[in-house]
């Protein structure tokens, strides 16, 4: 797989991840995100673009595909956990979390980006030797 294909896959996963994370809890749990119509879908996807856009931006610093694993695992893992456990019906203020989740995801993405960068440098050195 090339980096271009990996980046495209990263974007597709980033767009659909909030909905996929809600599937294990059933259709009414998924309905909390999908009942808002096209506007709600665009809002959730647009807000999550903060997180997957950060991973995408970091990927341009890497030359090796394996370096992309750490930011994807940490960033998408946090997003999946957050969206999978957020119950919008429990509190009238819960929808605010849809804005906060992608912003909070920047920390694990940043940690993963550093790990990925170190891994990329190690892979470059071992390949050059």
Description:
Helix content is 77%, strand content 0%. It is built from 6 helices and no strands. Helix 1 crosses helix 2 (27-34), helix 3 (37-59) packs antiparallel against helix 4 and helix 3 packs parallel to helix 5. The longest helix has 23 residues, at 37-59. The protein is elongated and about 55 Å long.
Write the layout of secondary structure elements.
Blueprint: H1 3-22, H2 27-34, H3 37-59, H4 69-85, H5 97-104, H6 106-128
Radius of gyration: 16 Å
Regions with little confidence, pLDDT below 50 for 5+ residues = none
Could you say which overall geometry the principal axes of the C-alpha atoms support?
A: elongated
- Please give the share of residues in helix: over 70%
Summarize the structure.
77% of the residues lie in helices and 0% in strands. The protein is built from six helices and no strands.
